[in-house]
Design goal:
The complex is a heterodimer. Chain A is of the alpha+beta class. Chain A has five helices and eight strands. Chain B contains 24 helices and 17 strands. The longest helix of chain B is centred in the C-terminal third of the chain and has 22 residues. Classes of the chains: A alpha+beta, B alpha+beta.
């Protein structure tokens, strides 16, 4: 069964351990700019949202790539360093800005799920990031929302 | 260098000169970073007798080697300078994201010298450093300054700034970063204000490198697990924040109440972490690389005190709460928000109000001095107004802005000030928690719990339990905590990592990160070295053993209620043992042999 990286912004404390873990796992150094995940925080509201590749089914980055470097493998969007000509069209095509170009290493930075063992998930202290079966991901969210319906309707009667 | 960036940035605001110099590997090894390394720079470069608010004082922003890495809860920095409240060396510690950003911009330390002619702010974008006009920012609150500076620099810049209190040289003004995080104590914000420096914005694209990545990751995972498995570090602080301590301290009669008249507050629960979680908490927040999440995003809906922000944490809730005889958490939380917005240390602010209330109750202060306000214990109505008046130095606020010691001295009643070395003690009564009294008395920045948190052992039983009312063995306990904390602060780690970690784990991570071998003994000795260096600074500044004491109230007036009823502080009887075990003379001066052994001779 395919797995997905699921984000729970409501649990995120904004600590950025995910960025650090990602950068260290991929680059061997602590350089948040090189992370494939980034956390954005709103200090006045005390709210944070982690952002990373959504592995879109109809992926703009794949569609726009002229060399097939950005391609699909086993349900995931994968970047092939060798085929890439660094035109950076993918960074423009991604509607979320989740593919970026790193001038220091001349790489496209995009989440690769760490080949099935995402380091960001391992280092998130708040379970704001989870790596779960995609059906379960859908179901747990649905169920949580259904519970909110249940509560509102229970009050009305 | 690994862990360290290898570069120090120096900005002279008088001349406008901006220079870079290499970080000395020798000094980095001996003093680690942050509090330790910056204190060494102060010691070598600044006369300890300097007027803290003069251009000759320096202001150092200092992250540690851990800062910027995923060492658990290791993203902190210190603001080191001579403190105007105390006249001692001041190292005020803050979390947030500012320290890590300074590392990513490429710097181990930022040393600010001199004084700008008019208000300025610093814009550090990697190696591009500018001193910019800040005339239009002068007078702005902390959150507004942060937003305005970001609009002019970069929306992701990390911003440390002062509020109106720092501009007006309030002696306990703080430096705030990312709006809610405070380098709180000793008046480091007034030093920044005296230099006409309103803010520092940083954007860093760089890196922190690691000597032995595999060993570092292994050490970090081990340390994380120890913190996460700890009942306080892993669960308690996340669920209830630091304010969970209110009920714990009240139970042992160690919650200072009404300016330390007693150690028990009957309605304390109304201001504790459990009440906060039920009434105000929106969600926990974490500083950079934090796994503990004690930060509190909170909201008050009561229209009278409506607002949102972070906190209060324990000391703040106590200072505005039990210490003022107040149990209205809405008012307390609002007072805390206003301190953060205007840039004031919550501990000294709350306790200075408590001191004023005490003097008012005894008729030393009258409505004539207090602008007509009834500054009485339990009067929550006046809290927010007194905080505001202090930050803007309006009316009675002129006197509050000097802190409790100078306020009480002004009326020739210093006995009303619950301070050590002119800095107010925090929320643990030394008559109930004996070791912490010795720590306050000997603290290198005066009344302060985070120099040697013996409370951990005496009250929380971490990592072992000692009787809180006993004095035996407390000299050594105090020394151990003071040394451990001096080294820990210097790495960039949060003090709360000691809920799970000790010198073993910290030394192991530091070794793997920097490639410089620190055994557990080396690490503790480094803490001893830093503590003694701070002591030498203070002695050169003119302090003596006579300053290592507690207010008379704690030494002579037994606690009248609570679980520690009848006890006074045994601090004077513990002091000679403390000096002796420190390797100091009976006059509290480090002996030549001691300094030789620490490499400070």
């Amino acid at each position: 069964m395919a797995k997905v990286l699921m984000i729970h912004p409501d649990r995120c404390t904004g600590c950025r351990n995910c960025e650090l873990a990602c950068s260290f796992a991929h680059e061997g150094e602590f350089r948040p700019r090189a992370a494939r995940i980034h956390v954005y925080s709103w200090e006045r509201e005390g709210f944070s949202v982690p952002m990373m590749c959504q592995q879109c089914e109809d992926a703009g980055c794949v569609n726009v790539c002229p060399t097939g470097a950005m391609h699909r493998e086993n349900g995931m969007v994968v970047w092939d360093e060798k085929r890439c000509i660094r035109c950076r069209m993918c960074t423009l095509a991604c509607p979320f800005g989740n593919a970026v170009y790193d001038a220091r290493t001349s790489q496209i930075l995009k989440c690769d799920n760490c080949d099935g063992e995402p380091e960001c998930v391992a280092f998130c202290p708040n379970k704001a990031l989870e790596y779960v079966d995609d059906t379960l991901a859908t179901r747990s969210k649905k169920k949580a929302f259904a519970a909110r319906f249940k509560e509102s309707f229970a009050e009305v009667k | 260098m690994y862990g360290w960036t290898g570069t120090i940035l120096r900005v002279n605001l008088t001349t406008g000169q901006i220079t870079r110099e290499p970080t000395s590997p020798r000094l980095a090894k001996q003093f680690i970073g942050a509090r330790g390394l910056a204190t060494k720079m102060m010691y070598d470069e600044v006369d300890p007798k300097v007027d803290p608010l003069s251009p000759a004082n320096k202001l150092i922003f200092a992250p540690g080697p851990f800062t910027g890495t995923y060492a658990p809860s290791g993203g902190r920095y210190d603001v080191v300078t001579k403190g105007p409240l105390t006249g001692t060396i001041a190292a005020s510690n803050s979390g947030g994201f500012f320290g890590a950003e300074l590392k990513y911009a490429g710097y181990d330390l930022l040393i600010v010298e001199g004084k700008a002619e008019k208000p300025v702010y610093l814009w550090i974008n990697d190696d591009q450093v500018e001193i910019r006009d800040a005339s239009h920012l002068w007078g702005q609150t902390v959150p507004d300054t942060t937003d305005l500076v970001r609009a002019e620099t970069d929306e992701d810049a990390k911003v440390a700034c002062i509020g109106p209190a720092g501009e007006r040289l309030v002696l306990f003004a703080n430096v705030m970063n990312e709006m809610h995080r405070a380098a709180g104590r000793s008046g480091v914000g007034a030093v920044m204000g005296s230099k006409n420096l309103k803010a520092i914005a940083i954007l860093g694209s760089g890196t922190v490198t690691v000597a032995d990545p595999a060993a570092f990751k292994a050490a970090v995972l081990k340390a994380r697990k120890k913190i996460q498995d700890h009942p306080v570090g892993g669960t308690g602080l996340r669920v209830y924040g630091t304010d969970v301590l209110v009920n714990i301290l009240n139970q042992i009669g160690g919650l200072p109440t009404r300016n330390f008249h007693t150690g028990y507050f009957p309605t304390a629960d109304k201001v504790g972490g459990e009440s906060q979680a039920a009434r105000h908490l929106i969600r926990p927040r974490g500083c950079f690389s934090c796994i503990i999440s004690c930060g509190r995003a909170t909201r008050v809906t009561n229209p009278k005190y409506a607002g949102e922000g972070e906190g209060p944490e324990y000391e703040s809730a106590w200072a505005f709460g039990p210490d003022c005889g107040i149990d209205d958490l809405d008012a307390i939380t609002k007072a805390n928000y206003v301190c953060n917005e205007l840039g004031l240390d919550t501990i000294t602010m709350g306790t200075t109000i408590a001191c004023a209330m005490d003097m008012f109750e005894d008729g030393i202060l009258t409505p004539q001095e207090t602008d007509g306000l009834a500054v009485t214990f339990g009067n929550a109505e006046v809290l927010v107004e007194l905080v505001r008046k202090t930050a803007y130095r309006e009316g009675f606020g002129m006197q509050l802005a000097e802190g409790s010691y100078r306020l009480a001295m002004h009326y020739e009643h210093p006995e009303y000030s619950m301070s050590v070395k002119k800095q107010e003690m925090p929320a643990y009564d030394p008559r109930s928690v004996q070791g912490v009294g010795l720590n306050y008395a000997t603290g290198n920045r005066g009344g302060c719990h985070v120099r040697g948190y013996t409370v951990s052992v005496e009250v929380l039983g971490n990592p072992f339990k000692m009787d809180n009312l006993a004095t035996e063995g407390k000299a050594d306990l105090t020394i151990t905590f003071q040394n451990l904390t001096a080294a820990l602060d210097s790495t960039g780690a949060c003090l709360f990592t000691t809920f799970g970690l000790g010198a073993d784990e910290l030394a192991e991570m530091l070794t793997a990160l920097t490639g410089v071998t620190y055994t557990t003994d080396d690490f503790m000795k480094t803490g001893d070295r830093i503590w003694n260096l701070e002591r030498l600074w203070n002695l050169r500044a003119g302090l003596t053993a006579a300053d290592d004491t507690l207010p008379e109230r704690l030494l002579k007036e037994p606690l009248p209620s609570g679980a520690a009823k009848g006890h006074v502080s045994g601090q004077p009887e513990m002091l000679p043992e403390y000096y002796a075990h420190r390797g100091w003379t009976p006059e509290g001066v480090p002996t030549p042999e001691k300094l030789q052994a620490l490499g400070l001779a």
